[in-house]
Design goal:
The protein is of the alpha/beta class. The protein folds into 2 domains: about 5-65, no CATH class; about 85-265, Vaccinia Virus protein VP39 (Rossmann fold, 3-Layer(aba) Sandwich), CATH 3.40.50.150. Helices cover about 30% and strands about 25% of the residues. α1 packs across α4. It starts with a helix and ends with a strand. The model has no long low-confidence stretch (mean pLDDT about 90).
Amino acid sequence: MSPRRAIREFARSIRPARQAVRLARSLYRPMVGVESVPSALRRYPRFFRELNEYRRLAGTEAIPVGELYPCLDDRTSTTAFDAHYLHQSVWALRHLVNRSPRTHLDIGSDARFVTAVTAICDVTFVDIRPLEISLDRYRSVQGTITALPVKAQSQRSVSCLHVAEHIGLGRYGDELDPNGTSKGCLELQRVIEVGGQLYFSVPVGRPRTCFNAHRVFEPTAVAEFFPELDLLEFSFVDDAGVLHARTDAAVAAGLDYGCGLYLFERRAP
């Protein structure tokens, strides 16, 4: 069946007015957030063709037009993933499993990482936008990275992954501040106890500010944000999404938009 015929046949199957409105909502929904709307529109003929084929199958259930849910970008040859978030989560979790902290403090990291850490230890999550879920070994505290509601040198294990680059750019409701990242880093440093570790990541590569999304940092300059901490390990995800483990920050020079993974520890006085 041709795409045009498939669309005409489907259109004849719906009733006007209320059903047409429900259909419009269903078809518009997958367009929100799609990178290429023209590309998505080209996929609709296949959607209608397969819908018509499905309706002809024996035992097919009734599907009101308001319940249609086109998923136009999922038919790919491989499973897509965000290399930065995938690698940083695995990197930090492996360290946490090896160290087995009794408690862990996270500042603003991805919710999937934060909740996974509860399989290892008790977790307190601090964010300007609280993550309000009911989960064993989990506690949410509203706060900002530039003024953490945490006592000085009180934390043995802290993470802040892909967060500090946003601070001061207003993206998440934070106050505009050109020094937002450096202020946030000093707060992270303040709460680490002697012998405590900080798992930290930010975009690294060609230094720049992309308002109001994020900043990108020169890989070797990030350690300067933490003058009281020692850098124990540096790893990074390159522009192709490949992880380079336990290397020197200078190796990451020349990246455009990589992800630097930094393990810091507070030295004894």
